[in-house]
Design a protein that fits this description.
Elements (H helix, E strand, L loop, with lengths): L2 E6 L20 E2 L3 E2 L1 H10 L4 E5 L5 H6 L14 E5 L14 H6 L2 H6 L4 E6 L2 E3 L3 H10 L4 E7 L9 E5 L5 E6 L6 E10 L14 H10 L2 E6 L3 E3 L3 H12 L10
Parallel strand pairs: 1-4, 1-6, 4-5, 8-12
Antiparallel strand pairs: 2-3, 6-11, 7-13, 8-11, 9-10
């Protein structure tokens, strides 16, 4: 696969309260025997992406214990490997990660050392099944610089998500954070041309501001993901999904 993967697993989410007092959201138990991050790892491995970086920060011990054996997902050194990045101090930096763009910026040497043409970025706390090769093929077809994978959320509560406006050509024209109503949201996973990272400012969060600038300056398109997707960031979402899973009605499982 001509892509390197990055899984963002470092965020602190107070909405889960006691459930994340001792663990990151991406380390939340899901479906009795999995952790939330396993779904993104499974997607990476089964999409043929053999080099994956996991960026973590908040309450990372539980997550690192879980990731201790990368052979689960076939990320051996011959295929590229799994890399776990945590905040560090250096002569040029004395900050913790200050946002998603900053955590990538502080580890930009990983991308500079990589030869792959594309970068697939995924969230560590979303449950979905996807072949990232489909996203990359779409990205190439549209000659995009960035592809934002979006979900149809008509009728859902979208007040905790970032919303995108999409024109008739599939180009992203606007971002709005936590609106009242919307049709499409930013699903939290993307395809980048690797060279685009030369234009991102490490002080910006990888959300609204840099995307709006890039939407004006570069080719930013939306891929409409029609498959199952759920973000495990609230009590309700976590409980509902696990109840469906235990009843055998979730309609989805980790790739075998």
């Amino acid at each position: 696969m001509k892509a390197v993967g990055i899984i963002l697993a470092g965020g602190k989410d107070n909405r889960l309260k006691e459930l994340t007092e001792a663990r990151a959201t991406s380390a939340m138990p899901v479906g009795s025997c999995y952790r939330a991050i396993d779904f993104s790892l499974s997607n990476m491995s089964n999409s043929g992406i053999g080099k994956v970086a996991i960026i973590t920060q908040y309450n990372s011990r539980s997550l690192q214990d879980h990731l201790n054996s990368s052979k689960w997902w076939d990320f051996g050194s011959k295929n590229g490997g799994m890399f776990i990045f945590t905040p560090f101090l250096s002569r040029d930096n004395d900050f913790w990660f200050r946002g998603t763009a900053d955590c990538i910026y502080q580890n930009i040497s990983f991308l500079h050392r990589s030869k792959e043409e594309f970068v697939v970025i995924a969230s560590g706390d979303s449950i979905y099944k996807a072949d990232y090769a489909d996203f990359i093929d779409f990205h190439i077809e549209k000659q995009a610089d960035i592809t934002v994978v979006c979900k149809d959320v008509s009728g859902m509560d979208v007040t905790s998500f970032g919303v995108v406006s999409i024109d008739a050509d599939g180009r992203v024209t606007e971002f709005e954070e936590k609106p009242v109503i919307a049709d499409w949201i930013n699903g939290g996973f993307f395809v980048f041309n690797r060279r685009v990272f030369d234009y991102l400012d490490g002080d910006c969060a990888l959300e609204r501001e840099p995307f709006e600038r890039l939407a004006r300056e570069r080719q930013l398109v939306a891929y409409r993901h029609m498959g199952f997707w759920k973000c495990m960031d609230t009590y309700k979402d976590n409980l509902e999904f696990n109840q469906l899973w235990e009843a055998g009605e979730a309609g989805w499982k980790v790739w075998s």
